[in-house]
Amino acid sequence: LRIAVLASGRGSNFAALLAARERGELSADFVLLASDKPDAAALQLARMAGVPTLLLEPHDYAERRDYDAALFERIAASKPDVLVLAGFMRIIDGDALKPWVGRMINIHPSLLPKYRGLHTHRRALKAGDTEHGASVHYVTAELDGGPVIAQTVLPIEAGDDENTLATKLLPLEHQLLAAVVSLIADDRLALTDNGIAFDSEPL
Ligand code: GRF
Which amino acids does the record list as binding N(1)-(5-phospho-beta-D-ribosyl)glycinamide (predicted)? Predict the structure, then answer.
């Protein structure tokens, strides 16, 4: 499976995918790491891992949709089978992502459909939730709104704040994302018109 990863920052989810591959738990090739931020640590991780990188900066484009069109055109040139948004902090124009629906997933740090968008840990705490988590979902034009593939859950404990929650959640995100990408790599997961198909054997 040819995977392109999009990341805007630290890249720990991308690193988790690379580590899963090193452990032999993910049979995939990373054909590209694309970023919108020149200082994204994910770019450094990719260079060290020998993964081709693409940096495209939004300020070089007059319109958001022009940037998105250029970004996905360049990504398509790497011929990926699947796109993984791993901390990619842009809302993607519907036209640019349309060709990828069913082949693009995102990891979001909340128990969707709760807390789409930003500041999810803070919002869960503010709501007095007793549990929090992360979701991997297929990307559609609706922000953080596509079909949820899998979720990981952790309890919110007394004394938790935004930072402790984010810190406890991150390793669980890494496990969740690597497990889902591995299922896709083994062709055991697909988005169909009737929803998500999962199989114990390759589909
Ligand atoms: C993760 O918490 C992810 O759920 C959210 O942004 C963060 C990215 O972290 N979308 P990293 O760049 O993968 O370390």
Answer: 11-13
